[in-house]
Automatic annotation (TrEMBL):
Residues 161-389 form the Tr-type G domain. The keyword Transit peptide does not apply. GO terms for molecular function: GTP binding; GTPase activity; translation elongation factor activity. Residues 24-39 have a biased composition (Basic residues). It holds the Pfam family GTP_EFTU_D2. Residues 1-52 are annotated as: Disordered. This is GTP-binding protein 2. Keywords: GTP-binding, Nucleotide-binding. Belongs to the TRAFAC class translation factor GTPase superfamily. Classic translation factor GTPase family. EF-Tu/EF-1A subfamily. It comes from the Eukaryota.
Length: 589
């Protein structure tokens, strides 16, 4: 696939071809509209089977839960606790379904009794239930039989809410910041960008209306699936206290001028999902294709939002969706587009999307009229985490490693660093070492306090993003791309490293001595190509093992890390295969 991702980074030729194709499509539009339902996979409401129940995971099938004995009830509650643990605080119960996946269905009386028992079980384990959808099963009996799909979510305790990070991508002026403003503040836009004003961090962003930096917004859901941002003037701290599930949006820049910031946001902030926003009236333009290619190169699952549908006719929206569908089905993508047009679709899309990376949900909505915004909220509410509790536990048992993405000086607090805890557990008062400095050393420091989403937190667990206060530690010794690790870790730092790369796009030939900007996780630095194994030069689409050397200072890298490099129109992806340690780890007090 990698060699074909280059098609997404696009040259003028491929866009011209698409232009011709879209003109052809316009002629055949009426024919294709009839076949529209055939092209998008939809959940068949009357399919007699679901996949058999899995031993692991957070999905449980129950035929019925009518008047269980006390012993049986205790067993069911323990089972629910296990399913919640597997889903990191969330589980889905299918009522009226046998363990082999056969849709049997229940009468109305049995369904009411089963949901009542389920509610009692949830109360016992400290959770709430929400019925996602009910549907009838077609059988010959006179009495209708139904099955129900129920979301069980833990009530938050001690700030251990489920946190999913979503990177927001798309071309400039496609409506990314406006959509986030509407989602997180609960007020529709006025058509002139009022909703996005609170998201901007700089004066020039307000004046031009273009995002140039990375801003973070949060959307909280309580245990019943109700959005908690929208009540009167909620602070981030109050949202965290009452939310069981948090969606953290990473608003990235759309303009090509700020591409390095967008790449840094994708590589450093470790998003779980990416949301590609496409304007319905302009279609696939500017950096849209490139952003889609970046997300795919970094293997971030992506879903698409077609915005501004209030500005154009239905046929224009359909043309944009067809254009997207064609790109998603290209050999480089191999995605299966899934148009979401009802609540039922949104529930199915959320579950299928997390299970299969090839499914790509497409939403069509407006931030001004509010059309289909509720479907996107339903999708976010149900979207399950990618990693299960077992993987999370394994990461937490490793040594502490915190990636530094942002550095601030806060009055009366001192130096503060923002970033993501990659592995281990970090507590207040913990002694760590930070580096590497320009001379390749690590310095000792103490974590004074921790904040997540602007509210205090005593313990930070692997995969969580936070800001750490470092007291009077000298800010000039810190830079983006550093790591804070346990003193026992003995980290490997290097000037030189080897990587297996694919050259996605290059105007001429890629050879020894060429300089590129390398992105590996939170590391962003210029490096020189020192050698190409077995080749003198590389052309677009070719693979090779290349040795790079950093220009300014050594960096902390890991074998197997994803790598992305760029220089002007030159772009490539790869994986770090070998490190050449600069010197053995040494730290200074």
């Amino acid at each position: 696939m990698d060699s074909r991702v280059s098609e997404l980074f696009g040259s003028a030729g491929s866009q011209a071809t698409n232009g011709a194709a879209s003109r052809k499509t316009a002629k055949n539009g009426s024919k294709k509209c009839k076949n529209r339902s055939a092209r998008y996979p939809k959940a068949s409401n009357n399919s007699p089977y679901l996949p058999p129940e899995a031993e692991e995971g957070n999905i449980e099938y129950k035929l019925k839960l009518v008047n269980p004995t006390q012993y049986r009830f205790e067993h069911l509650a323990t089972q629910m606790k296990w399913r919640l643990q597997e889903g990191r605080g969330e589980a889905v119960y299918q009522i009226g379904v046998e363990d082999n996946g056969l849709l049997v269905g229940l009468s109305e009386e049995d369904m009411k009794a089963s949901l009542k028992t389920l509610r009692r079980m949830a109360e016992k384990v400290g959770a709430d239930i929400t019925v996602l959808r009910e549907r009838e099963v077609d059988y010959d009996s006179d009495e209708p039989h139904r099955i129900a799909e129920v979301l069980v979510r833990k009530v938050p305790d001690d700030q251990q809410f489920l946190d999913l990070r979503v990177a927001v991508l798309g071309n400039v002026d496609s409506g990314k910041s406006t959509l986030l403003g509407v989602l997180t503040q609960g007020e529709l836009d006025n058509g002139r960008g009022r909703a996005r004003l609170n998201l901007f961090r700089h004066l020039h962003e307000i004046q031009t209306g273009r995002t140039s930096s990375i801003s973070i917004e949060i959307l909280g859901f309580d245990s019943k699936g109700v959005v908690v941002n929208y009540s009167e003037s909620r602070t981030a701290e109050e949202i965290c206290e009452s939310a069981s599930k948090m969606i953290t949006f990473i608003d990235l820049a759309g303009h090509h001028k700020y591409l390095k910031t967008t790449i840094f946001g994708l590589t450093s902030y470790c998003p779980d999902f990416a949301m590609l926003v496409v304007s319905a009236n302009t279609g696939i333009a500017g950096t849209t294709r490139e952003h889609l290619g970046l997300a795919m190169a970094l293997k971030v699952p992506i879903f698409i939002v077609v915005s501004k549908v209030d500005l154009c006719t239905k046929s224009t929206v359909e043309r944009t969706v067809r254009q997207l569908e064609r790109i998603l089905k290209q050999p480089g993508c191999n995605k299966v587009p899934m148009l979401v047009s009802s609540t039922d679709d949104a529930v199915t899309a959320a579950q299928k999307f997390a299970q299969s990376p090839s499914i790509t949900p497409i939403f069509t909505l407006s931030s001004v009229s509010g059309e289909s915004l509720d479907l996107l909220k339903v999708f976010f509410n149900i979207l399950p985490p990618l990693s299960n509790s077992k993987e999370q536990e394994e990461l937490m048992q490793q040594l502490t490693e915190f990636q530094v993405d942002e550095i601030y000086t806060v009055p009366d607090v001192g130096t503060v660093v923002g970033g993501t805890l990659y592995s281990g557990i970090c507590r207040e008062g913990e002694q760590l070492v930070v580096g590497p400095t320009d001379d390749g050393k690590f310095r000792e420091l103490t974590v004074c306090s921790i904040q997540r989403n602007r509210s205090g937190c005593r313990v930070l667990r692997a995969g969580q993003a936070a800001t750490l206060a470092l007291g009077d530690f000298d800010r000039s010794l810190l830079r983006k791309g550093m790591v804070m690790v346990s003193p026992e870790m003995n980290p490997t730092i290097c000037w030189r490293f080897e990587a297996e790369i694919v050259l996605l796009f290059h105007a001429k030939t890629f050879h020894k001595g060429f300089q590129v900007t390398v992105h590996v996780g939170n590391v962003r630095q210029t490096a020189t190509v020192e050698a190409l194994q077995g080749k003198d030069e590389l052309r677009t689409g070719e693979k090779a093992v290349v040795r790079f050397r950093f220009i300014k200072h050594p960096e902390y890298l890991k074998v197997g890390a994803k790598l992305l490099f760029r220089e002007g129109v030159t772009k490539g992806i790869g994986q770090v295969t070998k490190l050449q340690p600069a010197s053995q780890y040494q730290h200074q007090p």
